[in-house]
Each structure stands twice: as C-alpha cells, then as structure tokens.
Amino acid sequence: MNEVKANPKSIWMLFMLLIPWCIYGQSIENWVSFPKNKQMFQKMPNLSWSIDKNDIHQNPILLNPSNLDQTIDGFGYTLTGGSAHLIQALASQEKQALLQELFGIKPNQIGISVLRLSIGASDMDEEVFSYDDIALQKEDLKLQHFSLQKEKKALIPLLKEILRINPNIKIFATPWSPPTWMKDNQESKGGKLLPKYYEVYARYFVKYIQEMKHEGIVIHAITPQNEPLHPGNNPSLLMTAEDQLIFIRDYLGPQFQKDRISTKIICYDHNCDKPDYPITILNDQEARKYVDGSAFHLYNGDISALAQVRTKHPDKNLYFTEQWTGVKGDFYGDFMWHIKNVVIGSLNQGAKTALEWNLANDRNLGPHSPGGCTECLGAITIDKGIQRNVAYYIIAQASTFIPAGSKRIIIKSSSNLPLVAFVRPDKKICLLIQNEVPNNQKIPFQYLNKTLELDIPGSSVSTFLFKL
User: Fold this and answer.
1) Domain Glycosyl hydrolase family 30 beta sandwich spans what residues (predicted)?
2) Which of 121, 154, 293, 461 is within CB 3.0–4.6 Å of 316 for a Cys-Cys bond?
3) Rounded mean pLDDT of the chain?
C-alpha cells in the first residue's frame, strides 16, 4: 500500500483558511429595546466581523479588553418592607415564578445581583418603626429591647427564598431614622442624632448585622443614613457631613473593628449636587480608614459628581444606590433618561452598582408611611397579577447582560452616543449603546484588528454580546 504524504504547503493554506472562520467568523449577538413602542429586548439577527482592512473606518469605537476599570457588584432595587409584604402575600407558585424571574440567571430571567434594605422602616413601609422602640422619655443604652420581630413576617422569610435562588446576591442596608429616643426631637421625621447616643447607635448597627447574620442573611455594606440632607421625609434624619465624619471616625468604624464586623461602611448616600459631603469625610485621615466609598442618588446635581469624588480619592469605591420613577412619568422619557444617567452614566463614572428605588407597590402606590412617597412607582405593580413598569426594564437592560464580577472596559470613542462596555466573568464582551435621536446612526467599531459598522436604530438602546 502506497503511503500518502501530506503537502506542508497545503496544510499551511488550509490553516490560513480556517483562522478567519474560527476567529473572525464568530458572530455578535444583538438585542434592541424600542421604549417608544414598549418593544423591549428584541433579538436581532447576529452580526459578523470583517477582516478586510478596507473596511476600517475613521474614528471608530476602539475596544481594548485589557484596558479595564472597576469590577461591577451589580444591579437591583430597594426591597422595601412594603415590597416584601406584597410579594410574600402572593400565592406560592406565583411568588416562586416571580422570584425566579427577578433573581435567576437563566433565559427570561433578569439576574438581579444587588438588593438594598432599610434598617427599620423606610417611607415605603405601612408604619414607621425602628428595631428599638420604647416609651417616650426613656432610653435603652444596652439595647435590651432590640428586635427584628417586625421583619420576620415578610422581609426575612422572603430574603431567605431569594438567597436560595442567588446565594451570592449582595445586600446593602441603610436607616431612614434612628430610634426616636436617640433624636433631639423625639420624632421619626427630621431631627438630629444626639451626640450622647453616637456610641449606642454604633452598637445598634452591629447588633443589626449580627442578628441578620444569625438569620442567614449577610449584610455586604451599610450607609449611616439614607439621604442625610433630606430631613423632610417620614422617617428621616438630618446628618451633616461633619456629624457623619465624627460618627464614622470615632464610633461606627472603631465599633466595627472591635466586634470584627466585615460589613463595608459607605458614606453619604444622597444627591450628586453635594460631592463635597463625601470628600469632607474621605479627607479625614482617620475616618477614611473605615470607609469603603461613597453612595449617590440623582434627584439633584449631575452624574459627573462621582468622578469629582473619584479624582480626589481614587482608592475609594463609588456606588449608585437609588433613583425613583414616578407614576406621572412617561415610559419612553424615563427609560432613556435613566439608561443614560443611572446606568451608562454612573458606570462610566466608576460606580460598582446601579440601583433603582422601590421593587414593588400595589395599585394605590402603597404601602407607604404617613407622609411617605405617594407617587413612587415600583418596578412592578402587584394587583391581581403582576405589571412590569419602567424601572423593571431599566434594570433588566443592564442586569440581564452584565453579571456581577464583570469589569468595565475603558473605551476610546469620538461617538456622541452614550455607551459602556464590559468583560464578563465568562470572557464575553458586552457593549451597551444608546441612541437618543429618532434617526438610525451608523457607528464604526473596532475590536483588536476586527471591525464592523454598527447600525444603531433611532430612539433605542442596543446590547451587543460576543466572545473575547
């Protein structure tokens, strides 16, 4: 039998033919949301790379996957007490389907990876309470009356079910008010924390974290006060930057250290119009030792405030922790503004999280406290079924495609379109692009030595996904 010898030249030619098929022939998955028509996450035909040098355009979006920035903790909502009661009251099968949809990572599940809780009541609880409520003119310096009993009906059982679906979810927590006996006005609304109770209030945080851990719920991070410069809500508290600095530096930080609490301390947790607030705290060499970073909302100011803080303190993390949508809002306008600012904007400024406000409400926009928000629209409305509202889709646009652990890619681009990109833990790249104008826009895109022209539909948000 004659032996057939391979021709080395033929093997080399075959190898060269296979390289484009193996590497450049990989397709790019594409989804587009058209919020004007409420046509969300429409799967579009896959795209293909070009390796023809003649196809390289001037001023493309340049994507270098080795040029990385912050690691993403994820996206989500505040699981208010009102949200928890509404969801917990659903029939078992309906509740499980909803929780899988919200917290699962399979197709048709949006993969929420961060939840924010209130320590005690927020204004989206039916009643106002703390975990140490006692008679007027009394005090409880040893926290003997501390109890999570009010959370054991809905919030804690629901969190346990969520953790069974996603054990890695990160939980942030913040108080709307301390117990009233610690305040100068003895009321849930407004007032200031009396300095003589700073030490016991620090122990209150420790006790909360320890009691939640006893329930199997790990608190990843806390902020000392929700919206510390807005004492007009019910509940609420006024806490100036100087007050918070002293509380963290001299009481909360040392108490965490003494009790070996690994929960992160994040300062501020309010609007982008006061970047001087977190900067004041981080400028203090003692206080900053205990502080992981700063948290922001965007009811006032500009999202660029995050970069101002990062420029001053590049070693500290940034978080975006709350933005509401209102019942009187426009779906298209709200979706596009939030994608531009809360999602793409905050992430490009270095934020590790992007959170919307209340997860769920009923058809009357409740429950809420007396004096609480009467126009806050939850991500879902529960009323003889489940209605998905604009905040659901805002978070889903990010959380579905950008899992926790993704790293942001620093993009070089002359495009005027808002965009952000990530390397995911599975080594896929996700690119999110928004087109606010009615007309389609063609955007040249280059990844290493592969190119293509992206056709971004007008008034849309596009997501592209491809292998590294």
Assistant:
1) 405-464
2) 293
3) 93
- How far apart CA 112 and CA 171 sit, in angstroms, is 11
Evaluate if residue 98 carries a pLDDT over 90: yes
Residue 140 one-letter amino acid:
D
Buried/exposed code over 49-82 (b: 16+ C-beta within 10 A; e: otherwise) = beeeeeeeeeebbebeeeeeebebbbbbbbbbbb
State the pLDDT at residue 129. Answer: 98
Q: What is the pLDDT of residue 136?
A: 86
- Is domain 27-69+410-467 classified as CATH 2.60.40.1180? yes
Q: Within a 10 A sphere around the Cβ of 409, how many other Cβ atoms? A: 21
Percent of the chain predicted with pLDDT > 90? 86
pTM for this prediction: 0.93
Could you tell me how many residues make up the chain? 468
Would you list the domain boundaries of the chain? 27-69+410-467, 73-404
- pLDDT surpasses 70 at 20: no
Tokens of 345: 């904007």
- Nearby residues of 427 by Cβ (< 8 Å), 6 or more positions away: 467, 468
Q: How far apart are CA 287 and CA 291, in angstroms?
A: 7
In this predicted structure, what is the pLDDT of residue 412?
85
Instruction: Please name the CATH architecture into which domain 73-404 falls.
Output: Alpha-Beta Barrel (3.20)
Residue 308 CB-density burial (10 A; 0-12 exposed, 13-18 middle, 19+ buried): middle
